[in-house]
Amino acid sequence: MAEREMTFEVVTSDDRLKEILHSKRDEPRYALDTEFANRFTYYPRLALVQLAWPDFIIVIDPFEVDVTLLEPLFASDALALMHAASNDLDVLDRLLDVRPSRLFDTQLAAQLVGLSRTSLQFIASELLSIKLDKSEQTRDWTERPLNAKAVLYATNDVAHLFDLADELLVDLERLGRVDALREECALALATYHVERNPLESWWQVRGTERFSTAEKLRAQFICAAREEAAELLDKTRRQLISDELVLSLAKKPPRSRDQLFTLLRPRAGEEEIVERVAEGLRDAGAAEPNALRLPADEDPAVIALRPLTSVLQAVTNHRALELGLDSSFLASRGDLLALVQGRTSKLDSVWRREYLTHDLDQLLKGTVGLFVNDGVLEIH
Asked: DSSP secondary-structure letter at 234?
């Protein structure tokens, strides 16, 4: 397929954005993407918004333009075309009071048609025979001025979404999965970022596997203090305390506040981290062993369910193979655990209930069984 020819413009004024949005108010579809930076801040910082219509792209500079001007567009009935929308939506949520009312996520569509990979670069190559240059992917998007190569990269993230959506829709209709995509996209729009419990942030630190319970408790409370301070100061966690230092403090806590201050070496304006970590260490010392929040792979209650979830995983893998879908997209191990524990998960969706969840429910109730017939897994 030949590349779609589209003109583009970098928008740096409110008046120009209002003018363009007014001129495009009757368009039934628009493509949307963002660029953001999160190397030095707790919350990702919005650095660009790319909007496209079938014949025109704008690159909005949020450092110059009021992005809340996009709210009427999002509230309209126009269909937003996005790729891997959740990250972009989370970033925009901090600035806007509304999300797009309708969504076509090309990554979700690619997963539903069974593509082996679902990056924008891959599906553009696979479906449109277009090679996207991703060399600017890791640049610092907060840097100004933007060079021509960066702007071109940004436009490419939306320029092909119209053609990709059209190609994917053909495959979805052939497979009878259009309603499944609608449901997945509606769920994506309705799902908001859930902040991690600070007391569980230590799960992301590698190297605690052989720690004693007391050492794990110290790691838990140190990381909780780090998480809360990072959010308050809008700094990255590792800017305040490295993971290596977390492990060191948990193994061998300091004897005094002065020693802790020397170990942490806080920058100007970050001194509060010392008090928070000191308080965390005191809380860890006073905590009972049952105050330790364990990740799922270390939780005895979850470990006891592994044989059962392994059986459900085998059924899921078998059904995914039949459907030509990635097994983890159909249901993750966490989704299967949630089903066993009676919690909500994506297995509650209508299309998954038809394809998988009903059988899993019947299996858990004991009304059906698993059999192997000539090497093929059967459920009846």
From this structure: T
